[in-house]
TrEMBL record, chain A:
Start-end of each WD repeat: 51-91, 138-178, 179-220, 221-262, 307-339
PROSITE patterns xrefs: WD_REPEATS_1, WD_REPEATS_2, WD_REPEATS_REGION
UniProt entry keywords in alphabetical sequence: Coiled coil, Repeat, Transducer, WD repeat
Coiled-coil ranges per UniProt: 1-31
Membership in a protein family: Belongs to the WD repeat G protein beta family.
Origin: domain of life: Eukaryota
GO biological process: signal transduction
Matching InterPro entries: G-protein_beta_1-5, WD40/YVTN_repeat-like_dom_sf, WD40_G-protein_beta-like, WD40_PAC1, WD40_repeat_CS, WD40_repeat_dom_sf, WD40_rpt
Protein name as it appears in the record: Guanine nucleotide-binding protein G(I)/G(S)/G(T) subunit beta-3-like
TrEMBL record, chain B:
Higher taxonomy: Eukaryota, Metazoa, Chordata, Craniata, Vertebrata
Domain G protein gamma, residue spans: 223-286
SUPFAM superfamilies, per the entry: Regulator of G-protein signaling, RGS, Transducin (heterotrimeric G protein), gamma chain, Winged helix' DNA-binding domain
Protein's name according to its UniProt entry: Regulator of G-protein signaling 11-like
Record organism: Sinocyclocheilus grahami (Dianchi golden-line fish)
Biased composition regions of type Low complexity, renumbered to the chain: 456-465
UniProt domain RGS: residue ranges: 300-415
Any GO CC annotation of this UniProt entry: neuron projection
CDD domains xref list: DEP_RGS7-like, GGL, RGS_RGS11
Region (Disordered): 430-471
InterPro entries on file: DEP_dom, G-protein_gamma-like_dom, GGL_sf, RGS, RGS6/7/9/11, RGS6/7/9/11_DHEX_sf, RGS_DHEX, RGS_sf
Gene Ontology biological-process entries: G protein-coupled receptor signaling pathway; intracellular signal transduction; negative regulation of signal transduction; regulation of G protein-coupled receptor signaling pathway
C-alpha cells in the first residue's frame, strides 16, 4: 500500500510541475493578443435545404464531399443524401437500429456506422450490382461505438464506450492498434489533417492526442468539468477544439500544450453535442442540447451568430470540405443545410 | 442541486449538469430584490398569488443577460420545458408566450433534480388520485400508463390507493387557492417527467455513460505508467502562447478569402443562387483554374499536394528540373500507406525496384542512414516501412523544389492566366428557377460549363452570369 501511495504522490507532483511549465509559456492573454484583429460581425446563416426522410432521432451526419453526406438515425437507417437536390442516393437498412455514429470514406466508396451493437459495420457503396451491402463487421469492442472515422479505404478508427479507441484493418477485420488510456467512455474522435495523429474526447473530461503509428498517447488535455462530447482539429492541425456537457468549448494548442481559449456564455446552460470549424477556422459552429447552434468567433471568443430552427437537440454538425455550407442533424429527425 | 447517481459499476456520476446552471438562474430570477416582480394573477374566478406574465420573464432575461428578444424567449422556453416555470392558463402546453399569459415558479420540491429519477410509485399515486377524484379525468395515454402500472406493481396497489385517498383527503382541508396551486404544480411536474407521447421528453439524454473505467485498476502499474507519461510530457518543448495565438490569427487571415461562410465566393454560392458554376469551375480537370485556387497552392506544400491539379503542375515543373522521380516516389509511398494490406509487399517491392535500387531508372536521392534503415525494413515490409524515406523526400521537395516552383515562370504564368469568376446575381424573378441537375462527370466538366453558360444566357434576363471572363 505504501508503495502505491508514493507512486500516486509522484504522479501528482509531476502533474503539478507540468501545470507550472504550461503556465510559464503563457506570455500573453488572448484578449491582448487579438485586440488588433478585425471583428467578424454578425453571421447570419439561413436554412437552404431541409432533408426529410428519417423517422426518428438523427444521431450523426458526415460529409463525403461538397454535396454528398451520410446520416444515421435510430429508425434503423443510414441515408446517403445528395443534399443539393435533397435526393436520397442510398437508404441502407441496418441490422441494429441503435446507431450512434456514421462516417463517409474520403474516397466516397464506403460508409460506416455503429452504435449499441458494439460493432462498426462497413458498407460498400460501389458494389458491382449497384446494391449496397455490408462489407465488413468489425467486432471486438466491449462497449458501444460512439464515433468512427475512415483514414482511407483500408483503415478506420473507432472510439467506444469501453474507453478505448481502435485502428482497424478493414480487409482482414482485425484490430491493428488499441489506444487505451482514457478513464471514461470515449465519445468522439477527430483525425488530423495530415493523418498521422488523431484526438479523442471522453467522459473522463479529458482529450488525448494519439500517434497512429505507434499507438502512444502524445498529449492529454484537461480542464473541462464534464463529459467531452465533441472534438475536432483546428484546420491548421495545431489545435484541438472540444465541446462538453459543461456548456463550454475549449481550444487546446498542441505546441504550447495547454488550453488557450474557452468559449462559454452565462446564457448557455445546455451541453455541447457537436462542433465543426469553418474552412478558415475563424468560425466554430457548435450544436447544443437546447436545440440551437451557436457560431463562435474562434479568435475573439464571442458569439457571432445562432442557427435556430430545430425542434429538438442538435446532435451532429458538419461543414463541407469546400467550406461552403454546414449541415445540422437533430433529434427532431431533420437535417438542415445552412449557409 | 447536483444529481449524483450510483451507476452499475458503483461509481458516482453527475447527471444533467445543465440543471445546476438552470437552477442558479432560476434562483436569481426569484430574488426578492433583483428578480422578477411577482403579483397576483387571476385565473377564472380564483386569484393565484406570486405569479408573473410571460412578458415579465422575457423582459427580465433581456435585461439580466443583455441579449436579444429571441434569445431571451429561447432561454425562457428552456425553463418551461424543464419544469422550472409552468403555465397557468394552458397547463398541458409547455411553452412560453411573450404576452400576459400567467406563469409560476415551480417549487424546489418538484424540481427535476430533487426527485431523480421520477418514481414509478409516485406516478401511480398521482394517476390514482386523478382517477378517484373524477372518473374519466385520465386522458388516453394516462389510462394506458395507469393500466400498465397496475400490472407491474400490482403487489403494492393497496398502498397506492391508500396513499392516493389520504392525499386527497388532506388536500380537501386546504384553501381553494392553495389546492389549485398544488394541483398545478404536481401536474406540471408529471407533464415534464412523464411527457405525453409525441411531445418533447426533456429527461431523455441518450445512452448511459460511465466515468470510471472499472477495467483500469488504479494500482501501482497504472501509476508507474502515469509517471512515465508525465515525465515525457514535462520534458517536452512548449512554445509560447503568444506565438501560437499569432499563428492562428495569421492562418485565419490567410484563409478568410477562401472561407465561403465568412466571405462568400465567386461566381456565387450554389446553395443560395441555385447556380453550380462554382463547382464546375473548380473541379479537378478544368482547363483554366481560378486565381484563388492557384493562390492557395502557395500557402503550404500540403495545399499544393492535396490538389490533383496542383500535383500535376508541380510534376510538370519537376520534369523540367529532372527531379520528377521525387514526387512519383512520394505518391508511390502514399499508395503503400493508404492502400490494401494484402498488396503492400508487392507494392513495396515495386517501389524498391523503381526508386531505391542503385542504378534504378527513377532513383531517389536519400541519405545513406535513411537508405540503410529502409532497406533493412524492406526485409519485412509493412504499411509504414517507407515512412522515413518518404519523409526525407517530402522535406527535400518542400525546402527546395517547392519554393522554386512558386517563383517559377510556370507558376506565375498559370496564376496570370487564372480566372476570377464574375459574380452571378441571384435571379430577380423567382419563378425563373434554373434547372437543377446533378453535377456532370468531371470528364465533361469543361464542355458542360460552356453549355451551361450558353443556356443561362438565353434563359434569364437579369442575371449576368456567363462564361468566366479572362483577366
Amino acid at each position: 500500500m505504501g508503495e502505491m501511495e508514493q507512486l500516486r504522490k509522484e504522479a501528482e507532483s509531476l502533474k503539478d510541475e507540468i501545470t507550472a511549465a504550461r503556465k510559464a509559456v503563457q506570455d500573453l492573454t488572448l484578449q491582448d493578443h487579438v485586440a488588433g484583429t478585425a471583428v467578424v460581425g454578425r453571421v447570419q446563416l439561413k436554412t437552404r435545404k431541409t432533408l426529410r426522410g428519417h423517422l426518428s432521432k438523427i444521431y450523426a451526419v458526415h460529409w463525403g464531399d461538397s454535396k454528398l453526406c451520410v446520416s444515421a438515425s435510430q429508425d434503423g437507417k443510414l441515408i446517403v443524401w445528395d443534399s443539393y437536390t435533397t435526393n436520397k442516393v442510398h437508404a441502407i437498412p441496418l441490422k441494429s437500429s441503435w446507431v450512434m455514429t456514421c462516417s463517409y470514406a474520403p474516397s466516397g466508396n464506403m460508409v460506416a456506422c455503429g452504435g449499441l451493437d458494439n460493432m462498426c459495420s462497413i458498407y460498400n457503396l460501389k458494389g458491382k450490382d449497384g446494391n449496397v451491402k455490408v462489407m465488413r463487421e468489425l467486432a471486438a469492442h466491449t462497449g458501444y461505438l460512439s464515433c468512427c472515422r475512415f483514414l482511407n479505404d483500408n483503415e478506420i478508427i473507432t472510439s467506444s464506450g469501453d474507453c478505448t479507441c481502435v485502428l482497424w484493418d478493414i480487409e482482414t477485420g482485425s484490430q491493428k492498434t488499441v489506444f487505451a488510456g482514457h478513464l471514461g467512455d470515449c465519445m468522439s474522435l477527430g483525425v488530423a489533417p495530415d493523418f498521422n495523429t488523431f484526438i479523442s474526447g471522453a467522459c473522463d473530461f479529458t482529450a488525448k492526442l494519439w500517434d497512429i503509428r505507434d499507438g502512444q498517447c502524445r498529449q492529454t488535455f484537461g480542464g473541462h468539468e464534464s463529459d467531452i462530447n465533441a472534438i475536432g482539429f483546428f484546420p491548421n492541425g495545431n489545435a484541438v477544439i472540444t465541446g462538453s456537457d459543461d456548456a463550454s468549448c475549449k481550444l487546446y494548442d498542441l505546441r504550447s500544450d495547454q488550453e488557450l481559449i474557452t468559449y462559454q456564455d452565462s446564457g448557455i446552460m445546455c451541453g455541447v453535442t457537436s462542433l465543426a470549424p469553418s474552412l478558415s477556422g475563424r468560425l466554430i459552429l457548435a450544436g447544443y442540447d437546447d436545440f440551437n447552434c451557436n457560431i463562435w468567433d474562434s479568435l475573439k471568443a464571442e458569439r457571432v451568430g445562432v442557427l435556430s430552427g430545430h425542434d429538438n437537440r442538435v446532435s451532429c454538425i458538419g461543414v463541407t470540405p469546400d467550406g461552403m455550407a454546414c449541415c445540422t442533424g437533430s433529434w427532431d429527425s431533420f437535417l438542415k443545410i445552412w449557409n | 442541486m447536483t444529481i449524483n447517481t450510483l451507476s452499475q459499476d458503483g461509481v458516482q456520476r453527475q447527471q444533467m449538469s445543465c440543471l445546476t446552471k438552470m437552477e442558479r438562474m432560476v434562483i436569481s430570477m426569484q430574488d426578492p430584490d433583483m428578480g422578477i416582480k411577482l403579483r397576483n394573477q387571476r385565473l377564472l374566478i380564483t386569484v393565484i398569488p406570486h405569479a408573473m406574465t410571460g412578458a415579465d420573464i422575457v423582459e427580465w432575461l433581456i435585461k439580466k443577460c443583455s441579449i436579444s428578444d429571441e434569445e431571451a424567449l429561447h432561454i425562457g422556453q428552456i425553463f418551461v420545458k424543464y419544469g422550472y416555470i409552468y403555465p397557468l392558463k394552458e397547463p398541458r402546453n409547455l411553452i412560453l408566450k411573450v404576452d400576459d399569459s400567467p406563469y409560476r415558479f415551480q417549487m424546489p420540491y418538484y424540481w427535476m433534480s430533487t426527485r431523480w429519477p421520477a418514481s414509478e410509485l409516485d406516478y401511480a399515486i398521482y394517476l390514482a388520485k386523478k382517477n378517484i377524484r373524477k372518473q374519466g379525468e385520465l386522458i388516453e395515454y394516462e389510462k394506458e400508463c395507469y393500466n400498465a402500472l397496475h400490472k407491474r406493481i400490482n403487489h403494492t396497489w393497496d398502498f397506492v390507493v391508500m396513499q392516493a385517498r389520504e392525499q386527497l383527503r388532506a388536500s380537501k382541508q386546504r384553501r381553494k387557492a392553495d389546492r389549485i396551486v398544488l394541483k398545478c404544480q404536481e401536474q406540471a411536474y408529471w407533464l415534464v417527467n412523464r411527457p405525453p407521447p409525441g411531445t418533447l421528453d426533456s429527461i431523455d439524454h441518450g445512452p448511459e455513460r460511465r466515468t470510471m473505467n472499472t477495467r483500469v485498476q488504479l494500482n501501482a502499474e497504472f501509476y508507474k505508467k502515469e509517471i512515465e507519461h508525465n515525465r515525457i510530457s514535462l520534458a517536452r518543448n512548449r512554445v509560447k502562447s503568444s506565438i501560437c495565438l499569432e499563428s492562428y490569427v495569421k492562418y485565419c487571415e490567410q484563409y478568410q478569402p477562401h472561407d465561403p461562410i465568412m466571405q462568400g465566393c465567386l461566381p456565387s454560392i450554389p446553395w443560395i443562387t441555385d447556380d453550380i458554376m462554382f463547382w464546375n469551375m473548380n473541379c479537378e480537370t478544368v482547363a483554366v483554374p481560378t486565381k484563388l485556387r492557384v493562390e492557395r497552392w502557395s500557402f503550404s506544400f500540403m495545399e499544393l499536394l492535396n490538389d490533383p491539379m496542383g500535383r500535376k503542375e508541380f510534376l510538370t515543373y519537376l520534369k523540367k528540373e529532372f527531379s520528377a522521380e521525387n514526387l512519383c516516389f512520394w505518391q508511390a509511398c502514399e499508395d503503400v500507406r493508404h492502400g490494401e494490406t494484402s498488396k503492400i509487399p508487392e507494392k513495396v517491392d515495386e517501389v524498391y525496384k523503381q526508386f531505391l535500387t542503385p542504378g534504378a531508372s527513377r532513383w531517389v536521392n536519400i541519405d545513406s542512414k535513411t537508405m540503410e534503415k529502409t532497406l533493412e525494413g524492406l526485409k519485412r515490409p509493412h504499411r509504414f516501412v517507407l515512412d522515413d524515406a518518404q519523409m526525407h523526400i517530402y522535406f527535400l521537395m518542400k525546402k527546395d523544389s517547392y519554393p522554386r516552383y512558386l517563383k517559377s515562370d510556370l507558376y506565375k504564368n498559370l496564376f496570370a492566366r487564372a480566372i476570377v469568376p464574375q459574380e452571378t446575381k441571384k435571379s430577380v424573378f423567382p419563378f425563373m428557377r434554373r434547372q437543377r441537375h446533378s453535377s456532370p462527370s468531371p470528364a465533361l466538366a469543361t464542355q458542360a460549363a460552356e453549355d451551361d453558360g450558353k443556356a443561362k444566357n438565353s434563359n434569364s434576363f437579369k442575371s449576368n452570369s456567363g462564361t468566366a471572363s479572362r483577366r
